[in-house]
Amino acid sequence: MSLKKIASDFKARYIDERRLPEAARQQLQRDRAGLPEHDAGPLAVAEAGIEWLKRSQDKSACQDGGSARDFSLLRGWASSYPETSGYIVPTLIDFAARTNDQPLADRAQRMLDWLVSIQFPEGGFQGGKVDASERVPVTFNTGQILLGLAAGVQRFGEAYRRPMVLAGSWLRDSLDPDGCWRKHATPFASPGEKAYETHVSWGLFEAARIEPGLGFAEAGLKQVRWAIGKQMDNGWFASNSLSSPAEPHTHTIGYVLRGVIEAYRFAGEADLLAAAALTADALLEVIEDDGRLPGKLDRNWRPTVDWVCLTGNVQIAACWLLLFGITGKAAYLDAARRANRYVRRTVYLSGNPDVVGGVRGSFPVDGDYGRFEYLNWAAKFCVDSQLLEASADVPPRGPGDER
């Protein structure tokens, strides 16, 4: 990283600590002191994460059944976030099934009912928080909520089938002929094509498992192949950032990689697995011994920031775990364990209930991703990845396989 870049990042992140709320100031000081050595293990952190997600539903500023976007050390609890509430639903359903926790399943259903209540008539869902000033249907957000609707049909039945089909059809019909979604971009990111919308295609694959024959899978696979066209020979994806294409977050790298893996798990086509492995193997060269992945990476896989995007760490760990289940490659399991452990060491299991079980956007907490925030999607991805690690069975999914 150049001295000019370091100076620019410092200027962007500078904050007068004397003006910080006490909790934010103390957290920043703890983070600057380094990670604690204690690791509570995957199951303890997953359980704490579920409790935090429950609290995010109870504490949402809207009190509407959705999950609050974040708890901020500067502002408190935010309003509900439809996009991430959508993919939090499958996490709650899965954990409820594992633990025979009916009240948790009821929470997932309440979240789904709220999502259905805000669906646009044509099938799409809004971007941003539910109280955003600009309410327009957005491709990415709809795809993430589609994951929840598909899980809802499987767990709760027919009430969620029509909303699922509406959302899937809207996505299918808005795809451009070349396989890129361009028509319904989010107003909350920079303009341009987004390779990470392979994570939208995953939603279409889940819907296709329930409702085959509607063209959902074909649309998803077309988009994934378009995205693979953005993959460089070294595994890095162009057009794969919320706002800075030259240096995507590990969060969006995790998104694009997971979508390609899910395409393989759905279709079983060797080139999809090869594309996923190309990126996953490149990331093996980036991770540090302690599990740290730099928060942003340029086209040569070089770090461009000195902080960690904790969400990206656990997303990429989950991808490695899935690939280990498919290929048996031990390096994936080793890297995933290190990446997960790094994030686990940032999670509190006692203390302020607003942060216990939560996952900060960045480490240190003043990093330029979810700055001073505990993000609901960070907690969701952390839970998912810890459960994958804790499970001895990380099964491959091929054509026609069911959950």
UniProtKB/TrEMBL annotation:
Name this protein carries in UniProt = Squalene cyclase C-terminal domain-containing protein
Name its GO BP terms in alphabetical order: carbohydrate metabolic process
Origin species: Candidatus Accumulibacter adjunctus
